[in-house]
Design a protein that fits this description.
single chain; alpha+beta; three-stranded antiparallel beta sheet; 9 helices
Length: about 375
C-alpha cells in the first residue's frame, strides 16, 4: 500500500511539473507574440491612429510609420531657398496688419512681449527613394505666422466686409493644409525626443509665461527653423541649436535622426519629427539644464525611464495629458516605437487598455 501511495505521489508531482511547464511555455509564447506582433497603425495625411488613440498629426513625408523601426538611418534633409519672400494673398494681406496688432496687444496684456523673428516657410517637398527629403522654403516672419497659423479659429475679416466675423478655418477648410497655397505662413519646426545614454527621456511642461499653449506637455525639444543672415537655417542645425538652448548640451550630427515630416492638423504647421540619442548620461543632461541662465520656457519636466517592463507608465501620458501640439504627442509615440523595436504590440495593447479605463483622450 505504501509503495502504491509513493508511486501515486510521484505521478502527481510529475503531472504538476508538466502542467506548470505547459503553462510557462504558453505564457512565454503569449509574451513573445505581444513583443513581436506588429501594432496596427493607421498613418496618413489626416493623422495617426493606434489602439483608439487619434493624434491629429498627418504624415506627409518620411519613414512610413509601420516601417519606422526597420529604417534606423532615418531621413536626410536638404533645403533649397525660393528667393521670394512669402506674401499673403491680397484678400488676406489687407486685414493682416490689424489682426497682428490685436494679437500683440493681447500678448502684452498677459505680460508677454513678442519679437518678429525671421522664420522659414515650407512651400513644398519631395521624398526620394533613398530617404532624402528635399524641402523648398522661403522667408517669412513670426507675426505673419502668429496671425495665420496660430489664429485659425478667430475672426480675421472685420465687420462690414463680405466675410464679416469669418475665421480662416471656416472660410478655407481643408485647403489650409495645402502647403502650396498662400493662406498661411507655415513656419517649419523641428520636434524631437531626447534619449540619454542610460535610457531616460524628458517630457517638459510649458510654463505659464510662454505665449503659445502655456501649461501643456511637449516633446523634449521643439522650435522653429530660423532664417539667418546667410539664408535658411539647415533643419539639423536648428535641432542642435534648440537642444543647446533648452537643455544646455551639444549633440553630434550622428546622434540626431529625422523620422518624418508631417502637418499639425490643429494649426497647419509643418513639423520635422526627430529622435536624438545623446551619449550623455541622465545626470549630465540635468546638470547642464540647471546651469542654464534662461529656463523660462519650461515650468518643470518629467524624467522618464525607458523600460518595456513599465509600458503602462510610458503610455499613460499619451492618453491622459493635455499636449501642446499633436506633433509633440506624435514625437513621443514614435520614440517609443523606435526605442522598443519588438514591443509595438505591447504599446498598442497598453493604449487600448488605458483608453478603455479612461475614455477621455486629451490632446
Amino acid at each position: 500500500m505504501n509503495d502504491n501511495n509513493a508511486h501515486l505521489s510521484s505521478m502527481l508531482r510529475t503531472y504538476k511539473i508538466k502542467v506548470l511547464n505547459m503553462e510557462l511555455r504558453d505564457f512565454i509564447q503569449q509574451l513573445k507574440h505581444q513583443m513581436t506582433s506588429p501594432a496596427i497603425v493607421m498613418a496618413d495625411a489626416q493623422g495617426l491612429r493606434l489602439g483608439g488613440l487619434d493624434i491629429k498629426f498627418g504624415i506627409v513625408g518620411g519613414v512610413k510609420f509601420r516601417h519606422l523601426v526597420s529604417n534606423m538611418q532615418g531621413l536626410r534633409v536638404h533645403v533649397k531657398e525660393d528667393m521670394n519672400k512669402f506674401q499673403l494673398e491680397p484678400e488676406l494681406s489687407k486685414h493682416f496688419a490689424c489682426v497682428a496688432r490685436r494679437l500683440r496687444k493681447s500678448a502684452l496684456r498677459h505680460g508677454r512681449k513678442l519679437n518678429n523673428g525671421k522664420l522659414v516657410r515650407l512651400m513644398k517637398f519631395t521624398l526620394t527613394k533613398r530617404h532624402t527629403l528635399k524641402l523648398r522654403v522661403q522667408r517669412t516672419d513670426y507675426f505673419t505666422f502668429m496671425a495665420t497659423n496660430l489664429n485659425l479659429k478667430e475672426a480675421i475679416w472685420p465687420v462690414g466686409t463680405d466675410h464679416e466675423n469669418v475665421s480662416l478655418a471656416k472660410h478655407y477648410g481643408d485647403a489650409l493644409f495645402n502647403l502650396n497655397k498662400p493662406y498661411m505662413a507655415n513656419a517649419l519646426n523641428v520636434i524631437a525626443m531626447l534619449v540619454t545614454a542610460d535610457g531616460f527621456t524628458f517630457l517638459p511642461r510649458r510654463s505659464s509665461a510662454v505665449y503659445e499653449r502655456p501649461n501643456t506637455l511637449q516633446a523634449s525639444v521643439g522650435g522653429s527653423v530660423c532664417y539667418k543672415k546667410d539664408g535658411p537655417e539647415p533643419p539639423l542645425e536648428a535641432l542642435k541649436r534648440e537642444i543647446l538652448e533648452e537643455w544646455g548640451i551639444e549633440v553630434a550630427d550622428s546622434e540626431c535622426r529625422f523620422l518624418a515630416l508631417g502637418i499639425n492638423r490643429h494649426t497647419g504647421e509643418p513639423d520635422l519629427i526627430a529622435i536624438v540619442k545623446t551619449g550623455k548620461m541622465l545626470v549630465d543632461v540635468i546638470g547642464s539644464y540647471v546651469r542654464l541662465d534662461d529656463t523660462f520656457e519650461f515650468a518643470n519636466y518629467r524624467t522618464i525611464p525607458l523600460s518595456i517592463d513599465r509600458i503602462d507608465d510610458l503610455v499613460l501620458p499619451l492618453v491622459s495629458e493635455m499636449w501642446s501640439q499633436p506633433s509633440d504627442q506624435a514625437a513621443y509615440l514614435m520614440m517609443l516605437f523606435a526605442q522598443f523595436p519588438n514591443g509595438s504590440g505591447r504599446i498598442e495593447s497598453s493604449i487600448k487598455k488605458l483608453i478603455s479605463s479612461s475614455p477621455s483622450q486629451r490632446c
